[in-house]
Write a structure and sequence with these properties.
- Helix content is 61%, strand content 5%.
- It has a two-stranded antiparallel sheet.
- β1 and β2 form a beta hairpin.
């Protein structure tokens, strides 16, 4: 079994490889495509001054072989904050992507603890 950071990076890398046009993989959930291009387009809209809401940088979106190995970047993309922004400001085509990011964020948070009590304390601290 893989550890939590490795699972997160694997999901992130698979998401990066999922593109509607020209990618190796194509993820589809509930009839909606889940593509990296959706996240990239949202980020481009954000950095162009239309939103100013994410803290994502060029390195988060334009992955290199080295950056694909960074858990920190993966965790910042696969996050509740990005999922919430996609749900609030994204169009209908990104809603399933937002749900998937939120699911994996919560899944990662659940795995990234030493014991059940620690998970409960983290949850209460952010409630």
């Amino acid at each position: 079994m893989s550890d939590a950071p490795h699972l997160l990076k694997t999901f992130w890398n698979n998401l990066f490889s999922s593109r509607a046009h020209g990618g190796q993989r194509l993820l589809k959930i509930n009839g909606s495509y889940i593509t990296w291009d959706q996240i990239k387009q949202f980020w481009e809209k954000d950095v162009s001054g239309q939103l100013y809401m994410t803290k994502l940088t060029y390195d988060h979106i334009n992955l290199t072989p080295q950056s694909k190995m960074k858990v920190k970047l993966a965790a910042q993309v696969v996050s509740e904050s990005l999922a919430t922004l996609l749900q609030k400001f994204g169009d209908d085509t990104v809603q399933e992507t937002a749900k998937l990011l939120l699911f994996f964020d919560k899944f990662f948070d659940g795995l990234n603890v030493r014991c059940h009590q620690e998970a409960k304390q983290k949850k209460e601290a952010f409630s």
